Amino acid sequence: MSEITINHYLALSSFMFVIGAVGVITRRNAIVVFMCIELMLNAANLALVAFSSFLGDVQGQVFVFFVMTVAAAEAAVGLAIIIAIFRNKQSLNIDELNLFKW
Amino acid sequence: MELQTILFWFFALIAAVASILVIANKKPLISALFLILNFFSLAGIYLLLSAQFIAISQVIVYAGAIMVLFVFVIMLLNAKDEEEFAGGMKKIKNFVYIFGAIIFIELVYFIFGGNNEKISAHPKVSVEIGTIENIGFNLYVYYILPFIVASFLLLVATIGSILLAKKKIEQSNE
Amino acid sequence: MNDYLFLAIWLPLLGFVFNGIFGSKIKTEKIIGVIASGAVFISFAMFVYAFFQLIEKPVEERSFVVTFFEWIKVGSFRVSFSYLFDQLSLTMALIVTGVGFLIHVYSIGYMHGDKSFWRFFAYLNLFIFMMLNLVMADNFVLMFLGWEGVGLCSYLLIGFWYDRKFEKSTTADAAKKAFIVNRIGDFGFLVGMFLLYYYFGSLNFKDIFGAIGSVEISKDIYTFIGLALFLGAAGKSAQIPLYVWLPDAMAGPTPVSALIHAATMVTAGVYMCARAATIFVLSPIAMTVIAVIGITTAMFAASIGLVQTDIKKVLAYSTISQLGYMFLAIGVGAFASAIFHVMTHAFFKALLFLGAGSVIHAMHEEQNILKYGGLKKYMPTTSKVFLIGSLAIAGFPGFSGFFSKDEILWHSYANGGIIFWVIGVITAALTALYTFRLFTLTFLDKPRFDVSKIHPHESPKVMTMPLIILAFLSIVGGFIGVPEFIFGEGSNKFALWLDPVFEKAKILSFHGHHIEHSHITELILMSIAIIISLSFMYFAYKMYTDKKELAQKIANRYKITYAVLQNKYFVDEMYEAIIVNPIVILSEKFLWKINDVKIIDGFINYLADLVEKISSSVKRMQFGYAQIYAFVILFAVSLSLLFLIINS
Lengths: 102, 174, 648
What we know:
The complex is a heterotrimer of chains A (about 100), B (about 170) and C (about 650). Chain A is mainly α and about 100 residues long.
C-alpha cells in the first residue's frame, strides 16, 4: 500500500455511495434522508475529482462545480418542501407520507 | 511512508467512519454534525488531489451553507428522535443491508479487477490544475453556457423555496 | 345483341326488387301481377330469340357463352356470371320461363285477396331468377348459387303462410324440413365440386368436360364424384333417401307446388346429372346406383300415392315417382329421354296441380278427396283439363306423357335390363291407378259433400286460361319426340336437337359394345305397356264409381299393407327417431347445457376472474412508500452489476 492509486479513491467513493443509498432507504426521518442524498452526491464528486486529477483533465473539476451548484439548489427547495409538509402533518416520519398508496 | 499516503489514509478513514455514523445515529442533529465532519475530510482529500478550488468551495458551500441550512431546519422543526421502523420496511431492513454490501463488493470488484494502465499510479499532473485561475478560465471560456444556466437555476431555486416555505397569504396578513 | 342476353336471366330479379320494395305500397293487385308476369314473359321471349339464333347455326356450333361480369378472382381461380346458351340449357330455360309465366298468370287469380299478395310475386320472381341461373350457368359455382337460391325460395314460399298450422306442426316447420334435407344433398354437391376442382383445376363446364378422357384419373374417382353429385341431385329432386321434404312442401300455396315442386326446381337434379353426363358415364357403378334408386323411388312413391286422401299429397308422391323415372333414364344413359320427360312432366304436372288448386279454391280450402265427388257438373273446364292431364301422366297413347315414358321404358330395357323394364311397367300401372282414382273420386260420381252448404263454381278466366294452354301442350308436347321406329328416321326431333350435347358422353360410354335391338321387340314392349296402363285406368274408373265396396274389401283384406302405405312406410317416423331426436337431445343436453354454458362461458368467466385476481394482488405493489421503490432500484442495480461482472 505504498502507493495511492486511483483505485483507493474510487473505493472510498463507492463506499460512501453505498452507505448513502442504504441510508436513504432505511432512515425514517425525512431530513436525514436528504442528508444521505447529499452524501451520495459527495461520493460522486469525489470520484469525479479523482479522475480529473489522475487523467490531467480539468473537466472533472468543472463538473464538480456544477454538481455543487445543483446540490445547493436542490437542498434549498427540498427543505422548503419538507417545511411545507410539516406544517400540514406535524410529523417528519416518511411512513406517514403515503397518500399514493392504493 | 510518504506524507501523501498517511494523509490519504487519515482523511479516508475519517470520511468512512463519519459516513457510517451519519446513518447509524438516531438523533438527526448528531447525523448532521457527522456529515459536516465527512465534508471536511473530503475537502482534505480534494487538496491531496490538487483540486484546491473545489476543496475550498466544498467547505464554504457544502459545510458552510448547505449543512447550516440543514441544522437550521432541524432546529426549526424540532425534529424528534427517530422511531422504530414501521410496517413493510421492517421486513426489508436486513435485505437492504445485504444488497448494499453486495453492491459494494461488486463495485470493488470492478475497481480492482479492471485494467487501468492508462491511469498512472500517482498523479503526475501539475498542481496548477485545480487553481482558481485555471478553473475560472475554463468556466468563463469553455463552459460559459452551463455557467449561465446554473445561475438561472439558482435564481429559480431561490424563488421556489421562498414560495414553498411561505405561509398562506391570508394568514400572513393577520 | 347476343351480349345482352344475360338480361333474360336478370329481368326477373328486377321484378323481385321492384315488387319487393314497392309492392306493399301498391294497392292494385293487377299491377303487381302484371309486372311479375311481364318480367317472366319478356325472359321467355328472349329465350325464344336465342333459340332461333341457335337453330340457324350448324349443329356443331350450337352453343355460345354470354358473360355478365366477373365474380371471383382469387389467384388463378376465376368464376364469372357467365351463361352458356346451348341446346340443353335453352330447353330448360324455355320450360322454366314458359310454364313459369303461365303459373304467374294463374297466381294472379289464385292469390286474389291475400294480404301478402306482393310478397308472393316478389318471391316467385326471385325463384325464376335463381332457377335461370341454375340452368344457364356455364360453371358449377354459378350453378350452385342458383341451386342454393332455389332452395331458399322454396323455403320462403313453402312457409309463405307462416302463421298457418299444417298437420302436426306449422308451415314454418315444413319449410325448415325442406331446407335442411336439401342441405344434406348440397353437402354431396359441394364434395363433388371440390373433387372436380382438385382434379381438373377449374369448375368451368367447358374446361372440365373438355378435359375428360385426356386427363389421367382413375375410375374410382369418377365414381366418387358421380355419387357425390348424385347425392345433391337426390336432395333437390326428392329421391330416396332425401325425398321426405316434398310431401310436407305441400303446405305452401298450390301455385308454388306447381311451379317449384313439379315443374322446375325438382328437375334441377335431373338437369345437373344430364349436364354432367360425361362424368357419369365414366363410372358404371354410379350409373347403376342412379338407375336403381330412380326406379325404386318411382315404385315406392307410387305405392304410397295409391292410398293418400289429400289431393295435393297424391300429386306430390306422383311427382316423386315421375322424378324416379327421369333418374332411371339418366342411369341407363338415356339423357335426352330424361330431359324429354322433364318437359312433358312440367306440362302435365303443372296442369294437374293448378287444376287441383282450382278445386281447392272452389271447395273452400277443403283438400280431402273423400269429401269431393261429382265436381264435373260444377267445374266443367277444370274437369276437362284435369282429365287431359291425367291421361297424359298415365301414358294414354298420343298424349305427351306416353311418348316420353315409353322412350324411358324402352331405353331401360335396351341398356339396363329386363328387370328395370318390368318394375317400370308395374309403376306405370300404379300411376294409372292412382291418377284415375284421383280423377274419379274428385270429378265423377255423385257429390259426397253437402251441396246446400258448399257451392263450388268454375274459376275465373285468369285461372282457366293457363290451364287450357297447359292442356294443349300436354297433348301436342310429345309430338316432337315420337319414336323413330314407327315414324321413320329423323322423326324424333327432340332427341336430334339434344343429342349433340351428349355426343361425348355417348362416345365415352360405349367404346366398343353397342347392342342392337330389333324393332319388333320395341313394338311388343310398347304394346304390353299400353295394354296394362289402359286396363288399370279403366279399373280405377270402375272401382270408384260402381264398385266402391270393392275398394273397401281390398282395404280390409290387406289391413297391414294398407296401414303401412298410408303411413308412408313410417319413413318420417324412422328418420325422426334415428336421426332427428338424437341430434336434438345431443344439442340440448350436451352442446348447449354443458359445452356452451359450462365450458365456453366458464372459460371466459374464468379468464375474467383470473385477471381480477392477478390485478388485486398486483395492486398491492403500490405501497405509497417511496423508500421501497428506492430499494427496488437498489436491487435492480445490484443485479445489473452482477450481470456486467459475469459478462466481462
